[in-house]
Every structure is written in C-alpha cells, then in structure tokens.
Design brief:
mainly alpha; globular; MFS_dom; transmembrane transporter activity; 2 domains; Growth Hormone, Chain: A; MFS_sugar_transport-like; Sugar_transporter_CS; 1% strand; two-stranded antiparallel sheet; 497 residues; Organic cation transporter protein
Length: 497
C-alpha cells in the first residue's frame, strides 16, 4: 500500500549539459534553493545604499549672536536640527562646511569595497570553491557590519564600511554563481532577472527602517543583524556540483547530484555512470584555447561591442546609485520620497523579464536608458519646482535604471564569446563600479546647483543609448563560442564579405 502512494519518478530530459541532465532544468530543489539564496540578496541593497540614511541631510545652524552662517569664521558655536534624525554620521563627526565632502567620500569608499570584493570573491570562488567563498562573505558581512555600529572615529567607520562592502560583493557574486550553476537554460533567464528583486526590496525597505530607527548606530545594527540568519547556510548550502565536476572532484559531485535528483524525484541510478562518462569525455577533450581580457580589444567589432557594453554598465551604476542618493537632497519627506523612488525598482525588474522576452535585449536597453535620460534631464530643468515634481522626475529616472540593471547582466553574459565571457562580464562589472564610486561625488555638486548632478546623469544616459545602437541583439541567437565568433556575431553579411 505504501508503494502505491509513492509518487512516480519524473525522467529528466537529457541534454549536452551533464549536470542538468541529472537534476532537471528547474524543479523542486532549484525552487527551494532559489528562495534560500535570495535571503542574502536583501543585504546588498541595505549595505550598499544604507548611506542614504546613515548620512541623511541634517540641518545645522549657528547659535552665535548676529551670525547666521554656521560655516562662517565668526560662528563660534553650532547646533544640529535633530527633529528628524537624532544622530547621523554628519552629526557624529561634524561632517559640515569644509568637511562636507567626507560624507560622500565614505560612500565612494563603500563602492570601492564592492569593486574589490567582486574581484577577490570571484578568484576565491574559482580557487577554493563556491561554498567556502560564500560562507566567508556572509559571516564577514555580519561581523564587520556590527563593528561599524561601535565606530569611535570617522576613518574607523570608513574602513569597516569598506570591509562590509567587500563582504557584500562576495555574497552577491558567489550566490549568483551558486544559483546559476544548478539552473537549466530554460529558466536561467527568468531566474537571473528575478534574482535582482530582493536588492530592490532591500533598497525600498531602508526608508521603513530609518522611519522607526532615527539613530545611525541602531539603524546600522538593524540592517546588519539579519545576517545572523545565514547560519542556516552552513547546513543547507552545498558546494556547487558543477564546480566539483569541472575540478575533478567527481565523487563529491555525484553525491550532491544524487541528493538533488532524489529531492526532484528524478532517477538516481543513472547519476554515477553518466557523470563518470561525462567527466572522462571532458578529460579526454582537447582544451579550448583560453582567452584574456586583451582579446576583447584585438579585433574591431568585438572591441566596439566591449566598449559600448562597458559604457552601459558604467552609466547604469552611476545613474542608479547616484539618483538613489540624490533623492534625499530634494527636500520634502525623506522617508516617503525614498520609499517611492526605491519602490519602482520592483515593478521595473519584473517588467524587464517581459521586455527582454518580447522586445529583445537591445530595444529594452534603448527604452530604459531613454526613460532615465528623460526623467533626469526633466529633473535638471525643473530643479526649482516643488518637491513633488522633483521626486516624480527622479522616480522616472530611477525606474529606467531599475529596468536596465538586470538587463545588462543578461545581455553582457550573452554578448561575449565563451572563451572570454568571464573576462568580458568581469571587465564590465569593474567599469560599472567606477560609476558607483563617482556617483556620490557627482551628487555633491548640488552645492553649486541642484540641476548639475541630474543633468550629468541624464547626459550619460543619452551616451549609453548611442552606444547601444552598435550592440547586436542576442535574443534567441546561439551564444558565440570562439574569438572568431565574437568578431562575426552580429555583423551583417555585407560587412563580412
């Protein structure tokens, strides 16, 4: 009777991919793993954009009689308006007047940490495994984030915020790799885009945290302590079976695949013989010529595509992080303004799935960059208008960037040939982090005029649109494999002749 109640096994469609051929494209285990991994993604939004409220605008006034300018040499005593925020890093270390730029510099240091963390975690994950790199990043984020809460000095704060950013980039990079390596091609596109949603939700929820917690140390504690839940990853996140397979640890790979196949109600008796046969074929195969980052620039058309794609990454990182920070400078209710502006990222990411599927990557990128350009240039032109108008314009710009962000991940991965795909995406990511580093410094130009920063962001969005024209569509096309494919992919027959 018990045997009759057991659900029948569901055969797996065999493909050229030996891993997916054992566990299926996207079944019960992959769905569970997807939601499990998403937990760590919230922290990327909290820690990379927490500066919005850690360094929230805090008005300062001069209490010296007959002196109104708190930055005047005649002002001997000042006080901060703590009616909205009881404390920020501005009030903690008096980051005003000639020290005003230090607040934005601290956020640029965070973005530098993201850049370094992306590089370090990528190398660590390839060398020692995805699981050790992922767990190290998760617990490093928790420990360094808590140390930030007790920072006695400004530069101490900057150093540990840098380390938090290194760890945050590590969780972001390695979690994405862990997920992508067990999801089949049929669902990979959708999973890659929806993977960005917790970042948007994390960004939006910052306003809720800050509304109830008005002291920066407790605010930092509240966005860090959630990382304690990562202890469950020790038991629930295995090593990537694909990484184990490609590095020759076949037995360990087989054991993990058998557990996943069992969870997915797939046959397990074929796992060992098929994986061992696949590895024997892999070992006997002539190694494909490896490319380097320089190969991206050796031939003319691949060079153009690389430059244009890298420019898109630079712009979207600059526009998204810059506009997100700029919203807090627009006046009005800082909590409502940031919640609205950040909240559009959720529908933006969902819309990206539909647009890339039906319009393609290229048209989606043109439309989203155009939307950012329109919103930000309008914001520059209407910078003297009311708060509602300015927040609406900034929201349009941020919405465009929220559609662009998941698209450049997908588009970049499809554009570069296999032999230099990691180099290509890695280069674009590095260039993008430069945009993130510059963003808070550009926002500081508001002291010369509120219109300057959005105008710069808007013009860069137009530049990204122009560059996108030269990038070929990749939707439905076979991925380029060799450097020769990379040069010919997307070129017209007339150009090839």
């Amino acid at each position: 009777m018990a045997d009759r109640q057991e659900k029948p096994l569901r055969p797996v469609t065999k493909t050229e991919d030996p891993i997916i051929s054992q566990i299926g494209d996207f079944r019960r285990y992959q769905l569970f793993f997807f939601f499990l991994i998403l937990l760590c993604k919230f922290g990327t939004g909290w820690h990379t954009l927490g500066h919005i409220f850690l360094a929230a605008p805090t008005p300062q006034s001069c209490t010296t009689p007959n002196v109104t300018d708190p930055c005047s040499h005649d002002c001997w005593d000042t006080e901060f308006d703590t009616s909205v925020f009881k404390s920020t890093i501005i009030t903690e270390w008096d980051l005003t007047c000639d020290r005003k730029q230090l607040a934005s510099l601290s956020q640029s240091i965070v973005m530098l940490g993201v850049l370094c963390g992306s590089l370090i975690s990528g190398m660590l994950a390839d060398r020692v495994g995805r699981r050790p790199a992922f767990l190290t990043s998760c617990f490093m984020q928790l420990i360094t984030g808590l140390i930030v809460c007790v920072s006695p000095y400004f530069w101490f704060y900057c150093f540990f915020r840098f380390l938090v950013a290194v760890a945050t980039a590590g969780t972001m990079t390695t979690s994405f790799v862990l997920l992508m390596e067990i999801v089949g091609p049929k669902k990979r596109e959708m999973v890659a885009i929806f993977y960005q949603l917790p970042f948007n939700i994390g960004h939006a929820s910052l306003a809720v945290f800050a509304y109830f917690i008005r002291e920066w140390r407790w605010f930092q504690f509240s966005i860090t302590i959630f990382s304690a839940v990562f202890v469950i990853y020790i038991c629930l996140v295995p090593e990537s079976p694909r990484w184990l397979f490609t590095t020759g640890r076949v037995d360990k790979s087989i054991k993990i695949l058998e557990k996943i196949a069992k969870c997915n109600r797939a046959p397990t008796e074929t796992v060992r013989p098929e994986i061992e046969a696949a590895y024997a074929a892999l070992a006997a195969r002539q190694p494909l010529k490896k490319g380097t980052m320089l190969d991206l620039f050796r031939t003319p058309f691949l060079r153009v595509k690389t430059i244009c794609m890298a420019n898109n990454w630079l712009v979207v990182c600059m526009v998204y992080y810059g506009t997100a920070q700029y919203v807090s400078k627009l006046g009005g209710n800082i909590f409502v303004s940031n919640l609205i502006a950040a909240g559009v990222g959720v529908p933006g990411t969902c819309l990206c799935v539909l647009m890339t599927k039906f319009l393609g990557r290229k048209k989606t990128l043109l439309i989203s960059n155009g939307l950012s350009a329109v919103g930000l240039i309008l914001l520059a032109a209407l910078s003297a208008q009311g708060d509602l108008v300015k927040v609406a314009c900034a929201t349009i710009g941020l919405f465009g960037a929220s559609v662009t962000f998941p698209n450049v991940y997908l588009y970049g991965g499809e554009l570069f040939p296999t032999v230099v795909r990691s180099n290509g995406v890695g280069l674009c990511s590095m260039i993008g982090r430069i945009g993130s580093i510059l963003a808070p410094l550009i926002c500081d130009l508001d002291s010369f005029g509120l219109w300057i920063a959005p105008l710069i962001f808007g013009l860069f969005s137009i530049l990204a649109m122009i560059g996108t024209i030269f990038i070929p569509e990749t939707r439905g096309a076979p991925l380029p494999e060799t450097l020769e494919d990379g040069e010919t992919f997307g070129r017209s027959k007339k150009a090839l002749n």
